[in-house]
Amino acid sequence: MKILVTSAVSLALSFGGVAVAQTTTVVVPGEVKTYVMKQESPSVTFEGDVAVGTALPDTVEIHTIPDQPDYGYVVVNKKRVLVNPKTRAVIEVIE
Predict the structure, then answer these.
(1) Please, are residues 73 and 83 in contact by the beta-carbon 8 Å criterion?
(2) What is the spatial distance between Cα 31 and Cα 1, in angstroms, rounded to a whole number?
(3) How far is C-alpha 39 from the chain's CA centre?
């Protein structure tokens, strides 16, 4: 019985570790933010909240950042937003 309880606890803790790993914070390089802040791009209107994790629709054009393939940006509802260009998910709202 003791082995069964220990195994169940170990299994539960291993699943808990996976959940914690999924909530990691993305650290964006400073030069990415600096580049985005200097760009003059028109703002697009998006219905709903623009928050970290929100996937932007295909109708929103994501702008590329030179030498930074993991980051894109768009100005949404007058806020500069960093986006993962592969998943279209918002990484960070800058402004």
Answers:
(1) yes
(2) 57
(3) 20
Reading the block at residue 21, the tokens are 């790993």
User: Which pLDDT does position 24 carry in this prediction?
Assistant: 58
Q: Please give the single-letter amino acid code of residue 74.
A: V
**How much of the chain exceeds pLDDT 70, in percent?**
74
| Residue 61 DSSP symbol | P
pLDDT score, position 23? 54
Q: Are 41 and 75 in contact (CB under 8 A)?
A: yes
Concatenated DSSP letters of 3-59: HHHHHHHHHHHHHHHHHHHTTPPP---HHHHHHHHH----EE--SS---TTPBPPTT
Which phi and psi angles does 93 have, rounded to 5°? -100, 115
